[in-house]
Amino acid sequence: MSDRVYNFSAGPAVLPEPVLRDAQRDIWDIEGSGVGILEHSHRGKVFDGVIERAEADCRAIGSIPDNYRVLFLQGGASSQFFMVPANLLPDGATADYINTGSWSAKAIKEARLYGTVHVAASSEDDNFAFIPTPDQTRCSPNPVYVHFTSNNTIFGTQFRQAPDTPDGAFLVCDASSDIFSRRIDVSRYGLIYAGAQKNLGPAGVTLVILREDLLERPARELPTMLRYSTHAQKGSRYNTPPSFGIYLMGRVFRWILDQGGLDAIERRNRAKAQVLYDVLDGSGFWHPTAQVESRSMMNVCFRTPGEDLDRAFVEAAAREGFMSLKGHRSVGGMRASIYNAFPPEGCDALARFMRDFEARHG
Ligand code: PMP
Q: Is 260 helix (H, G, I), strand (E, B) or coil?
């Protein structure tokens, strides 16, 4: 019997149980080497195998074409907010950004340090409750790239498909909160980045997938550590990489493959989210905050009829073993984060709890 609770945290978030069990073993002694994964040199044979397998499994999951590089970096997704424009947006050039929430806004702020930002679409006027449609998106005539946040962790909205780009522009995606939660056609993108701590592993490592030709056109001189080319040339080992994070991400990649890859993961995620949205749509008591066609499969955001009741819900849920259901501090309400590793039975249990709560308070 597990003593773990249902953890709805938005990140760092729940990890697959088999991965944690393997990690417990490998922290003590990995592959019979007599040394734990945390203690191995990042240039030794054991770690060579760890990082090579992690990359190979990542490529297999995303069917990543050969002309893309896979990098394991540090500094969180937030560092990609500036690394992308620093490396790829020349002085005087324009990048288009779609503003769908706080993380997009932070990316926009950093890009303005390096070039001109054109906001091609924004859902700010409606409190970021929706994803702009292609009709609502107006790109500039000649952007270097178009940046979007595929899943908005705070507002619980998610793009159904990647936006179109004008000819000559490449697509950049902050996929921090939905990477590898569904099928993805990597060949449509120039660069994809994601902090690991939601769908891929522990905090402290950031996955970057970028098209090789972009390495050949640096926008400006940069310190060595800030250049993608440095990390690409050195196989993410220019300096000491976040070796444990890469190890654990590799185990999560293996787990995704064991689940049947992205098709199976997507089916599972869709079913999990549906269980909760069915409750939210089932009566007037609940107020789901995202518009129906923009709803996220990863972060289900909702309210009760009042703030006092919201608080009571979060407290009662915690007593029953449903942890971290409080919405982001900037928006309030509730948020159930149900990333890849969140178990379907946790969604079923929460749905029962919600129906019961409604019966008592509705
Ligand atoms: N982008 C998105 C969509 C996020 O959800 C987050 C973190 N919640 C970030 C970026 C920032 O990531 P980090 O904390 O790894 O810098």
A: coil
Ligand 1 centroid to 309 CA: how many Å?
Answer: 29
Phi, psi of 320 (to 5 degrees): -90, 5
Work out the average pLDDT over 211-229.
Answer: 96
Residues near ligand 1 (Cβ within 6 A): 11, 76-78, 103, 149, 153, 174, 176-177, 195
Same-domain status, 225 and 326: no
Residues 79 and 137 placed together within one structural domain of the fold? yes
Domain boundary among 210, 241, 258: 258
- Of 103, 255, 310, 326, which one is the catalytic site residue? 103
Let me know if 109 is a catalytic residue: no
Residue 96 falls in the annotated catalytic set: no
Kindly state whether residue 9 falls inside one of the protein's structural domains.
Answer: no
Which atom of ligand 1 is nearest to 197's Cα?
Answer: 15
Question: What is the CB-side half-sphere exposure of residue 90 using CA atoms within 13 A?
Answer: 9
In the predicted model, is pLDDT for residue 2 greater than 80? Answer: no
pLDDT of residue 71: 98
Contacts of 169 (CB under 8 A, 6+ apart): 96, 139, 142, 143, 144, 145, 146
The radius of gyration of the chain from alpha carbons, rounded to an integer in Å, stands at 21
Which CATH number goes with the domain that contains 326? 3.90.1150.10
What average pLDDT does this structure show over 145-168?
97
Question: Is residue 12 a part of any domain in this protein?
Answer: no
Do 290 and 185 lie in one domain? The reply is no
Residue 220, SS3 per DSSP? coil
pLDDT of residue 243: 98
Active site residue 174: yes
How many domains does the chain divide into? 2
Question: How confident is the model over 81-131, as pLDDT tens digits?
Answer: 999 999 999 999 999 999 999 999 999 999 999 999 999 999 999 999 999
Predicted confidence at residue 174, as pLDDT, reads 99
Nearest residue by C-alpha to atom 14 in ligand 1:
76
In this prediction, residue 1 carries a pLDDT of 44
Structural domain ending residue among the three candidates 205, 233, 258? 258
**Residue 121: which domain range?**
17-258
pLDDT of res. 3: 82
- Do 33 and 142 fall within a single domain? yes
- Protein residue closest via CA to atom 10 of ligand 1: 77
Token pair 């054991």: residue: 46
